[in-house]
Amino acid sequence: MTVVLIDHHRARFFEPAAEGRLAEAGHLEPLDPHGFRRHLEHRKEADYKGERVPEADEFYERIAQRLRDAPSILFLGDATGKSSAMRYVLAYLKERHKKISDRVVAAQAVDLSAISLGEIEQISRRYTR
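Request: output the structure for the sequence above.
Response:
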């Protein structure tokens, strides 16, 4: 199972390693990792007055390409509602990459700022088939 820790700044990938452990297998960052394009926009000519600028799909497309051969996928993210990168990537996959979306076994909210590799492994064991 591939485990993906995701927020708007980065997606970190964990893959199975020796003896049932997980090992970090790389990460992806959006082309705008600090979110300068996601600030609130109030200009008259903008169609999204008072709302966040729409997400840049390039980040989510690169995540989809990274996951195209994963047999099963677990997403872990820490935001909720419209600010959730995890929620956004799940919807993106469902809409544009159904075959990948069908391999998502679960998505769980966690505190990404404090999660350890041991906790990631413990959570992933709950969803291992």
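DSSP finds four helices and five strands in the chain.
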